C-alpha cells in the first residue's frame, strides 16, 4: 500500500475538516496522520495529511482542490509501505 503526504491550504471554516475527511473516505483513502495549524491571521489553516491507498493520490488531490474553501493542495511525498491487517 502506498502512503502519500498532502499539504492543504484552506480558509478556516468549522466544516472544512469534515469536508476533507468525507472526500478522503469516499475516494478510498485511509488517513494515517493529520495535523492542522491555524495561520497567524486566523482566517486560514494549513492541514497536513498522510493517507494510504493503492489508488493514485492525484485522484484525491484533484477532488480536495475542488472543495469550496480549499485554496490549494500539494502532494509532498509518497512512499511504498507494507501495512499489515
From TrEMBL:
Stored InterPro entries: ACT-like_dom_sf
Phosphoprotein keyword on record: no
Protein name, entry field: Acetolactate synthase, small subunit
EC number: 2.2.1.6
Gene Ontology MF terms: acetolactate synthase activity
Top EC class of this enzyme: transferase
Taxonomy, superkingdom: Bacteria
Gene3D superfamilies in UniProt: 3.30.70.260
Keywords of this entry: Transferase
Amino acid at each position: 500500500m502506498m502512503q502519500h503526504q498532502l499539504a492543504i491550504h484552506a480558509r478556516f471554516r468549522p466544516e472544512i475538516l469534515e469536508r476533507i475527511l468525507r472526500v478522503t473516505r469516499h475516494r478510498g483513502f485511509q488517513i494515517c496522520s493529520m495535523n492542522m495549524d491555524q495561520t497567524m491571521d486566523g482566517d486560514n489553516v494549513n492541514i497536513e495529511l498522510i493517507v494510504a491507498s493503492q489508488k493514485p493520490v492525484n485522484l484525491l488531490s484533484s477532488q480536495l482542490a475542488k472543495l469550496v474553501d480549499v485554496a490549494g493542495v500539494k502532494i509532498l511525498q509518497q512512499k511504498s509501505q507494507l501495512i499489515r491487517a
